[in-house]
Design goal:
The complex is a heterodimer of chains A (499) and B (467). In chain A, 36% of the residues lie in helices and 10% in strands. Chain A is built from 17 helices and 13 strands. The longest helix of chain A has 37 residues, at 338-374. Chain B folds into two domains: 70-82 and 362-458, Aspartate Aminotransferase, domain 1; 89-352, Type I PLP-dependent aspartate aminotransferase-like (Major domain) (Aspartate Aminotransferase, domain 2, 3-Layer(aba) Sandwich), CATH 3.40.640. Classes of the chains: A alpha/beta (499), B alpha/beta (467).
C-alpha cells in the first residue's frame, strides 16, 4: 500500500470533527446560587445562539495539533536560514523559567510592592540594551519591530514639535532597499517618504543623500547592516549629513545580530534605534509572533519615551514613573510584551559581555563561509565580505528557467526551510530573484556543510533535471498552492463556524 | 561559549576557507576607532555570562521579590483577567517547539500547521463576533482599537472623498490604557479623538453621543462591557450613528462575554476588536497576548494585518495560504493601511486551543458561572455596611464598581485579599470607588472573605457618597 484514500480525522479541521455534546474541559460545581440570565443581566441583549465552537475531546484535540505540528518546519527540527529573520536556536530554559506562576499569573494591576522583581528585571534589561546600543535611554514597551519603528518616529516628531519645527520637518529619507515596514511606518507617523536610491552594492550614496536633505527633513531610517547583508561603511558620515541639517538618524536594528558587541550604534551618531528581541535575543518567533521591539534613544529624545518608565530608586526599591509631561503617551497597553522581555533577559544574562560579542562574530563567520563555498554555483549579489547574511540571486539558474522560488521549494525536499526569497525587491537586485541566506551563529559547521552540499546538488539539478525543481516539493502534504485564488476568491473561515 | 557549537579549530578552518586571517577582518567596514576593544572594560559594560543553574537562581531570586494573582483572593481585572488556563494549552503552544520555533508561514508547503491553525483561529473569532472576516491577530486589544481607528479613516477617505472626516469618537467608559494608545496613534496621524462621557448609569450618555456624531466623525467606538463593567446598549449606539453614517467599532477587554451577549455582528458593528488575553493566554503583566480584529466582509481590503485563506494546491487538494498581501506593508510600503508586519500567532493558537477545549457548550457555561459568581459578589459586597453599588440598575457581566472608602488596600492585603482596582486615578469624584473583577477562578469562600474583610475595615466609617 503506497497511498491511502481513507480520510484520517486528524487531518480534518476542528470544526469538521466536532460532535454535539463532546467535551474536553469541565468546570467545578457552581458554588454560588444559579441565576436566571435574563434577570441577572437586567435585560441586556443576549446573542441569538451560542458561538458554534468545535466540540472535541482532549485526545482528539491534542492529536489534531500534534498532527499540525508535523506539517510545520521549525528551528528545533530544521535548518531555517530565513534571511532577515535571524532564526537562531531558542534555549529551552527561556520557556521553562517563563512558565512559572510568578510570571504567568503576574497581573498588571498588582500593587507596586508585588512588582519589585519584575521592575528590577525591566531596569536590568534596559541597562543591557543601553550598553549594546551605546545610547543612554531605552523603552521596552513596543510590541514588535514595526511598533518600535513607529515609537521611534513618534519620539522624533515630538522632539521637533517642541522645537517648533513640527510643521516644517515633514520628510523621512528611506533607502530603496529598506524593509517595507520603514515607509509604512513613516506614513503612519504622518511623514512623507523620500526614497533614496542605493548604490549598486546597497550602500548609501552620500552625494545623493546630501541633495535630498534639508530643513524639511525630520530624519533618515537606515538599516545597518543593510538588507543586502552588508555593513554600511559610511555610517559616521551619514550621521554627520543628517545632523548637519538638524535632522535625526534612525537605525533599524533588524540586523543587530551582526554588530552587537562589535560597534555601538550610538557611537556612529545614531539618535534612535529599535531592537527585534525575537531576532537578536532569542525570543522564540512563535509562528509569526509575539516578539518585542524596544527602542534606544539619545539623551535629547529621552523625555519623549512612552510611559510608564521603570525606575530604580536610590534606596534600592523600584517604581514606575508615569509623570512625564513630554512623553508621547503609550503605544501598547501596560508594559508591552513582558513575557517576551523576560526571555530576552534570560538569554542576555546567559550571554554576558563575551557572549554578545561572540554571537556577532560567529553569525558573520557562518554567513561568509556559505558565501565563499557557494559563490561558484550561485551568484553572490555583491561578492565582498558580508555581515550576518548573504544575498545570492538566481541569475545563473535563470538560464535554465529556474528561479529563486524553485530553489526554495527544492530545499524543502532536503528538510531545509527555504531562505528568504525576492527580498530585497527586484528593483534593488536588477530584476534578479534574491535568495537571502542567514545561517545564524548557533548552527554548526556540519549543518552548514550539509546545506552547501544540498545547494550544490540543486545547482547541478538545475542544469540536468530542472523539472525536479519545478515540481518541488515532492514529499509535503500540499504542493505549489494556488495563492492567487487565495486572494481573488478568499475563503477566510470554515463555514460551520457561522452556522 | 553559550549556544555556539563551532570549536576554535572549526572556526580557524572556516576563516581559512573564507581567505581571511582573523574574525576582525570580517568587520573591516566598521571604523577601527569605533570597534569595541574587548580589553577596554569601559565599553559594553555587561556582566559576565551565567550558566543555566546560575540564571535559574537569579530569576528565582527576582521572583522572590514578587507576588502574583495566585497569592491572593484576587479581585482585579481592568483589561487583564485572572482566568484558568488549561495545561493542554501550554503543552501544545509552549512546550512543543513545532509552533513556537517556527516563523511566519511564507512557504506554505512547510507551514501548513501554522496556516491551518490561523484559519481555525479566524473561524473562531468569526463565530464569537458574528462578523465575516477576521485577521490573524494584532499586538493587543489597545493597539487593535487604534488600528480600527486608522482603518476607519482609510474607509472614510474612500467613501466620502469630498468630506473632511477627521474625528474618532470614543463613546462611554473605555479602558484608559486603550484610550492612551488610541490618542498616541491619533496624534501623529493628525486625527481628533472625542470622548462621549458615561452617564449616571455608567452607560454611554445617548444625548451627548447624538450631539457628538457630526459628519466630521468617521467612526465611533463603544467598549462593552465597558471599563466600569457595564454592558452598553449597542442597538442605541448603532441607531445613533445611522445619520452620520460613521463606522461602528465594537471593543471589549473580556471576549468571554461574547459567549452570552449580543454579538458585534448582530448589533450592526462594522469592526470588532478586543483583548485576547482572557482566551487561554497567561497574564505576564499584560503581554504578550493578542488583539483580535474582525470586520464586515465589505471592509476586507482595508483590514490591517495578516489573513489566511483556504485555497487548493496544484493537485486540487485543500490547502491554506497567506492572502490579500497587497494590503500589507511589504508590498504597498508607504501606501499600506498599517505598518504591522507580524501577528501574535502563538497567542492566537493559545486562544484557539482554549476555545476548542471549552467547546461550544463549555464556553457558555464558563460565562454563565462568571455571571452567577459576579451576581453573588454584587449581593454580598453590596450588603456590607459602608459599601454601595455605584451602578445598581445597570447590567454587568464580570466587573462592577463599588463605593466604599479610600485606602482600603492595605487592610485587605493583611488578609491576603487583593480587592478591586481603586478608580481614584480614573476620574474626578471616584475617590473610594473600586472596580471589582470576578472570573471562574473566584470562589464563594473568597467572595465571602472579601465581604467580611470589607465590613471589618469599614466598621464605624460613614458611606462616602458617590458623585
Amino acid at each position: 500500500m503506497t497511498t491511502t484514500t481513507i480520510a484520517n480525522p486528524a487531518d480534518a479541521l476542528l470544526f469538521e470533527t466536532s460532535v454535539e455534546g463532546r467535551r474536553c474541559l469541565r468546570l467545578p460545581e457552581l458554588d454560588v446560587p444559579k441565576v436566571d440570565l435574563k434577570q441577572a443581566l437586567k435585560g441586556a441583549k443576549l446573542r441569538q445562539k451560542p458561538a458554534n465552537l468545535p466540540e472535541v475531546g482532549e485526545l482528539d484535540l491534542v492529536r489534531h495539533f500534534k498532527n499540525l505540528a508535523q506539517k510545520n518546519f521549525s528551528v528545533d527540527r530544521n535548518f531555517y536560514p530565513l534571511g532577515s529573520c535571524t532564526m537562531k536556536y531558542n534555549p529551552k530554559i527561556n520557556v521553562t523559567l517563563l512558565a512559572q506562576p510568578g510570571f504567568t499569573r503576574a497581573h498588571p494591576h498588582l500593587p507596586l510592592a508585588d512588582l519589585q522583581g519584575h521592575i528590577e528585571l525591566m531596569v536590568n534589561l534596559e541597562g543591557y540594551l543601553r550598553e549594546v546600543s551605546g545610547l543612554p535611554a531605552v523603552t521596552l514597551q513596543p510590541a514588535a519591530g514595526a511598533q518600535g519603528e513607529m515609537t521611534g518616529l513618534m519620539v522624533i516628531k515630538a522632539y521637533f514639535e517642541e522645537k517648533g519645527e513640527g510643521k516644517t520637518r515633514t520628510e523621512i529619507v528611506i533607502p530603496d532597499s529598506a524593509h517595507g515596514t520603514n515607509p509604512a511606518t513613516a506614513a503612519l507617523a504622518g511623514f512623507k517618504t523620500v526614497t533614496l536610491k542605493g548604490k549598486p552594492d546597497g550602500s548609501v550614496d552620500l552625494d545623493l543623500l546630501k541633495s535630498l536633505v534639508g530643513p524639511q527633513t525630520a530624519g533618515m531610517m537606515i538599516t545597518n547592516p543593510s538588507t543586502l547583508g552588508l555593513l554600511e561603511p559610511n555610517m559616521v558620515e551619514i550621521a554627520k549629513i543628517l545632523h548637519g541639517v538638524g535632522a535625526q538618524l534612525y537605525m533599524d536594528g533588524a540586523n543587530m545580530n551582526a554588530i552587537q558587541g562589535i560597534v555601538r550604534p550610538g557611537d556612529y551618531g545614531v539618535d534612535v534605534m529599535h531592537y527585534n528581541l525575537h531576532k537578536t535575543y532569542s525570543v522564540p518567533h512563535g509562528a509569526g509572533g509575539p516578539g518585542a521591539g524596544p527602542i534606544a534613544v539619545a539623551a535629547h529624545l529621552e523625555p519623549y519615551l512612552p510611559v510608564p518608565r521603570p525606575v530604580r530608586n536610590e534606596d534600592g526599591t523600584f517604581s514606575l514613573d508615569y509623570k512625564r509631561k513630554k512623553s508621547i503617551g503609550k503605544v501598547r497597553s501596560f508594559f508591552g510584551n513582558y513575557g517576551a522581555l523576560v526571555m530576552a533577559y534570560i538569554y542576555m544574562t546567559q550571554l554576558g559581555r563575551e557572549g554578545v560579542r561572540r554571537n556577532a562574530e560567529n553569525a558573520v563567520l557562518n554567513a561568509n563561509y556559505l558565501r565563499v563555498k557557494l559563490r561558484n554555483e550561485f551568484k553572490v549579489f555583491t561578492d565582498r565580505v558580508c555581515a550576518h547574511e548573504v544575498v545570492f540571486t538566481d541569475a545563473i539558474q535563470a538560464k535554465n528557467d529556474i528561479h529563486a522560488l524553485d530553489v526554495a521549494k527544492r530545499l524543502i525536499d532536503y528538510n531545509i526551510h527555504p531562505m528568504t526569497i525576492y527580498f530585497p525587491q527586484a528593483n534593488v537586485t536588477n530584476g534578479e530573484g534574491a535568495m537571502m541566506v542567514e545561517p545564524t551563529e548557533t548552527e554548526s559547521k556540519q549543518t552548514l556543510d550539509f546545506f552547501i552540499e544540498v545547494m550544490k546538488k540543486i545547482a547541478q539539478e538545475t542544469r540536468e533535471n530542472p523539472a525536479l525543481l519545478k515540481e518541488a516539493p515532492h514529499n509535503m502534504p500540499v504542493v505549489r498552492l494556488d495563492e492567487v485564488r487565495a486572494s481573488t476568491q478568499p475563503q477566510l473561515y470554515c463555514p460551520m463556524c457561522m452556522s | 561559549m553559550p549556544f555556539i557549537q563551532n570549536t576554535d579549530a572549526e572556526r580557524r578552518e572556516m576563516l581559512a576557507a573564507i581567505g581571511v586571517k582573523s574574525i576582525d577582518d570580517l568587520f573591516a567596514d566598521v571604523p577601527a576607532n569605533l570597534r569595541i576593544n574587548m580589553a577596554d572594560a569601559s565599553r559594553l559594560k555587561l556582566p559576565k555570562g551565567q550558566g543555566e543553574l546560575e540564571v535559574t537562581r537569579h530569576i528565582e531570586g527576582l521572583l522572590a521579590k514578587t507576588k502574583n494573582a495566585g497569592d491572593y483572593a484576587f479581585f482585579r481585572g481592568g483589561g487583564i483577567y485572572n482566568h484558568f488556563v488549561s495545561t493542554v494549552v501550554d503543552h501544545i503552544a509552549l512546550f512543543d517547539s513545532s509552533f513556537i520555533t517556527a516563523y511566519t508561514p511564507y512557504q506554505p508547503e512547510c507551514s501548513q500547521g501554522t496556516l491551518t491553525f490561523i484559519f481555525e483561529f479566524q473561524s473562531s473569532i468569526c463565530a464569537l463576533t458574528g462578523l465575516e472576516v477576521a485577521n490573524a491577530s494584532m499586538y493587543d486589544g489597545a493597539s487593535a482599537l487604534a488600528e480600527a481607528m486608522m482603518m476607519g479613516k482609510h474607509v472614510a477617505e474612500d467613501k466620502w472623498r469630498k468630506e473632511e472626516r477627521n474625528t474618532f469618537v470614543l463613546a462611554g467608559a473605555h479602558n484608559p490604557e486603550y484610550e492612551q494608545v488610541v490618542r498616541t496613534y491619533a496624534d501623529v496621524a493628525g486625527l481628533k479623538v472625542v470622548n462621549v462621557p458615561a452617564g449616571a448609569d455608567g452607560r454611554i450618555d445617548q444625548d451627548a453621543l447624538k450631539k457628538a456624531l457630526t459628519r466630521k466623525v468617521f467612526a465611533v467606538a463603544a467598549q462593552s462591557p465597558n471599563y466600569l463593567g457595564v454592558i452598553e446598549d449597542l442597538d442605541a449606539v448603532n441607531a445613533a450613528r445611522k445619520e452620520s453614517e460613521a463606522l461602528f467599532v465594537h471593543c471589549t477587554t473580556e471576549p468571554m462575554s461574547l459567549a452570552l451577549l449580543q454579538t458585534p455582528g448582530e448589533a450592526g458593528a462594522d469592526i470588532a476588536v478586543g483583548e485576547g488575553q482572557p482566551l487561554g493566554n497567561h497574564q505576564f503583566l499584560g503581554g504578550p497576548a493578542f488583539g483580535y480584529f474582525a470586520a464586515r466582509k465589505e471592509h476586507l481590503r482595508k483590514m490591517p494585518g495578516r489573513i489566511v485563506s483556504e485555497t487548493v494546491d496544484k493537485n486540487g487538494k485543500r490547502a491554506f495560504a497567506l492572502a490579500l498581501a497587497t494590503r500589507e506593508q511589504h508590498i504597498r510600503r508607504e501606501k499600506a493601511t498599517s505598518n504591522i508586519c507580524t501577528n501574535q500567532s502563538l497567542c492566537a493558537l493559545r486562544a484557539l486551543i482554549h476555545l476548542a477545549a471549552w467547546g461550544k457548550n463549555g464556553f457558555v457555561e464558563l460565562a454563565e458561572h462568571t455571571v452567577a459568581k459576579t451576581q453573588y459578589a454584587i449581593k454580598k459586597l453590596g450588603a456590607v455596611d459602608g459599601v454601595k453599588l455605584v451602578y445598581p440598575n445597570s447590567p454587568v457581566f464580570n466587573e462592577f464598581v463599588i463605593q466604599a472608602a479610600p485606602g482600603l488596600e492595605k487592610k485587605l492585603l493583611k488578609k491576603k485579599i487583593l480587592g478591586g482596582l481603586p478608580l481614584d486615578k480614573y476620574g474626578k469624584g471616584r475617590k473610594g470607588q473600586y472596580l471589582v473583577a470576578i472570573t471562574e477562578v473566584t470562589t464563594k469562600a473568597q467572595i465571602d472573605a472579601y465581604a467580611a474583610a470589607l465590613a471589618e475595615a469599614l466598621k464605624g466609617k460613614a458611606v462616602a457618597s458617590a458623585k
